[in-house]
Amino acid sequence: MSELEQDSSAVPAGDEPVRANETTSRPGRTAHVLVAVLVGVALPALLVGVLIGEFAAYAMLVGVLLGGVGSKLGGTHRMAMLAPAIGVAAALGVYTAYDWWWAVLLASTGLLTGAGIGFGWLAPLLMIPYAATFVSPATSARDALIYGVVVAIGTLYGIVIARRFAAPEVVDGQRLPLPVAAMVAFVSAAILGGAASIGVALGWTEPYWVAEPVLILVLYILMGKRERIRGKAIGTSLGVAAAIPVALADPPAWVLTVVGTVVFVLALTQAKKYWLMYGLYTFSLVLLLSAPGQVGIEATERGVQIILGVGLLVVGLFVMHAFGSWLARRHPQPELAPT
Q: So where are the chain's domains?
């Protein structure tokens, strides 16, 4: 029985009209969200794309997403303060992608984000490496500057939308002692910098796929869903394995597009089973991004990238746990006397 059903079953019989109103209001709330997405997000992105260019439309969407998610995790007030930094990170990301300076940038954002756990800002600061990681190389410094400005504006716009849906002003995150916070900062820098360096060193065209599982899974850990680390590894392996028969069959490009699109839509319906959802997502991603006759190569590359990212995160978490345990033994916290 779901929580909604449990709440409904607890309502007395005399309150049936109230329960009916709640039931009929659910489609209204869904329509409200849909209209907000179309009018509040899609139309501004389309307008920016027409006036400036396709890259600016993407920047607007990225900014709105980061502003909305960051506001939910850290509060609208904190995200408003971080909007300029998110814009700067985005501009530097597209300008340096994908060379060694980009790896330095990701290491720097990881250091800053990890240090945030010392004063309760880890969750909103996580939006900064997101902005620097998921980028495409800019054609000029001018385009990079425009991209960063649009991302910052989009972030502020996302905050406004989040406020409309009752996002809190401040969400105080976990605070850890200074030695632990310093360790988290250095490990975060090593993980993100290492993930970017691997992609750059191997010359991958989209090296952010190594850092992708790190950032996504850290977000899930903050939400209390640590088990999704295993689900992502299993899902990636299954998705890549499922692509092997397709690679051997070598179907036409239009077949890959149709199958990939159908599987992607199917993946969206499996949110309760993360391993299955990510397996379907990986499979569809491989098919949609593969050039004709390159399904096997795409599957291998994407699988290796994601599994590497998961492995880096697991090692980093192990180091953090070991250091935290050592610190707790070295400096035990005094226990309060019973009253």
A: 39-211, 227-329
